[in-house]
Amino acid sequence: MAPSEAPRSGPWDGVRDYFRQDLLPLLADLRLAIVLLLAIAALSITGTVIEQGQTLEFYQTNYPADPALFGFLSWKVILISGLDHVYRTWWFLALLIVFGASLTACTFTRQFPALGAAQKWKYYTQPRQFQKLALSAELSETDLATLATGLTQKRYLVFQDGTQLYGRKGIVGRIGPIVVHASMLLILLGAILGAMTGFFAQEIVPSGETFQIRNIFDSGPWAEGQIPKDWSVRVNRFWIDYTPEGNIDQFYSDLSVLNLAGDEVDRKTIYVNEPLRHRGVTLYQADWGIAAVQVKLNNSPVLQLPMQQLENDGPRFWGTWLPTKPDMSEGVTLLASDLQGSVLIYDNAGQLISTVRRGMAAEVNGVRLSLVDVVGSTGLQIKADPGIPLVYAGFGLLMLGVVMSYVSHSQVWALEQGGTVYVGGRTNRAQVAFERELLALLEGVAERSGQEALNV
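^ thats the sequence. predicted structure below, dont judge the formating
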């Protein structure tokens, strides 16, 4: 061949060679997978310890620059590095992708070849081949048919060609690691999908009000399609059950999902650990508050006054101010701490005047003040994560793969030659149990053949 006709190595050939000879072995390296897994675990712990998705004021208050936590962890470090939203940062997602690539490379370069090797077997044709096995024996005055029967009873899949025999069982144990890797890839895919397209929101809604999800505090870059725009939620009623001692037992929200026409398309009473799910969005009962107090002054119509939570270090209180004269020269402060229907009344000097319960009245500043009701507000945590089904499916598949991986792949060979049956076997795990099983099998074969001695 002339020099000008020699095959040239193009740029794609160099890329292919680099991928096969350098990159693929590096990705399939178990040490790299362990390092990546430890890094993901450490960052996940960091994302659990450091509160995610909070306001700037929260981080400035809890992680001041002077003195910084551990000497370096301040609110500036948290915000600049993205530790306030670890699971959506580019570097955390990059770790997940590289770890997924490592699992894929290991699967195709190690696990699939191991499965293929387990399925490609050969008969042993020479007695010396049995010497390479960890466990081998020689039987006289027996035949392969008796051995094949014993192997079948032990749930071996037996193949026989004249004087040669091969039996195996537990091939599912070779499939197990592949299933484990596939399940982990499914979990990673679900985590990435949720991080890119999911969102978290919080809403505080008074009883009787209708709202659309707007107060979103954390979302992925592709989450816009998950935010509902064609339906809203109405809080039909919010209430709290109390114990005989006056402590909160459980709080409930009766929610209705409304379409654009205002028609109810779904309804459910939710409470802690029993959310409402609608079209991929989950609404959890997370908190509660007091939205307003309804009162009457003498024979006036019902007045609804909004209440605000007071800033104090003790028990939670909500308060409002009610004028008792038209010129607002006098008034009283109303305080409530729960929805059991009791309101404390204070004058402008901060002195307790009276305590009034729902349906009762009290005289204040020459006015008859009647308490009609205390209106509660429900605190809802709203979440959409399209990756959750993939994550759940991945964990289910992971459990199945782990169970499959514990199954031993056992192989037995036999050769009948010169009146002697040569038998040997091996397994990939549970070596002692396999040896006991094979020895018991050979003893049973010898007994059925009327053999008096077993030479091992």
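Confidence is low (pLDDT under 50) at residues 451-456.
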